[in-house]
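Q&A log
Question type: sequence-to-structure
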Amino acid sequence: MTKKKILITGASRGLGRAISKILAPEYALILHASKPESLSAADHEHAVLCADFTNEEQIADFCKRLKKEHGDELYAVINNAGVTFDKSLIYQPEREINAMINVNLKAPIMICKTAMKIFTVSKHGVIINISSVVGETGNAFQSVYAATKAGLVALSRSLAQEAAAISPENNIRVLSISPGFIETAMTATIPVAEKEKYLQMIPARRFGKVEDIAEMILFLLSDKASYINGTNIHVNGGLI
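Response status: OK
Response body:
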C-alpha cells in the first residue's frame, strides 16, 4: 500500500525532527530545511525540499516545486518552521521583524495556498499549522513572534470554513496546535528565573517534550480525528 505524502517544514531539528520521527513509519515524508546540510543522512532517505523562508522569492519557488513534484500525492502539510528574535519592539531591527513575518506567517500562508489548490482537486487533505501559547497570552519581548503565531490560528480557522464554502464535498481539515513551553533549542535560551516562573504556572509542573506535540499530530492526521476541524488545540500542561 502506498504511503500518504506529508510535508513537514522546519524538519531539521527540535519539534520538526520529532514530528518526522513519529510520522515516518506510517507516512512518506517531504522534509523541508533551509539548507540540505541541516538535515542528517537519515533525513535524506525521504524527499527533501530546501528553501530559506526569510526570502520571499525562495518561498514562491518552494511552493512551485511542492506542487510540481508532489502535488498528485500530497495528503497533509505540517507548517512547523518558525523563528524568533526576543527583544523589545523598540529595539527590534526591521530585518528581524521581516524574518519572523516571512518564516512564521508568510511561508505558511503561501504553502496553505498551494495545498488548498491541490486538496480542492483531490477533495481531501489536512493542514496543521504550529502556533504557540503566546499567540493567545502574549509575551513581553516577543510581540512580533506572538502576532505571527496568533495569525496562524486565524488562518487555520478561516481556511477550514473556506474549504467547506468552496465545496461541501471537500474533506479538507485545517487546524492549528498551540504548544506551551516545550523543551527545544528555542526555549533553552530562556533564563532560569524565567523558566521557574512559568513552571509554577503550569499545573503539570513540567515543560512539554517534543514528543507530546508529535504524538498529537499523529492522532490529528488519522481517521480517528476526522471530526476535529477549524479549531486550535492547546498542548501546554494546563498553562491557560
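Response note: The chain has one domain: 5-233.
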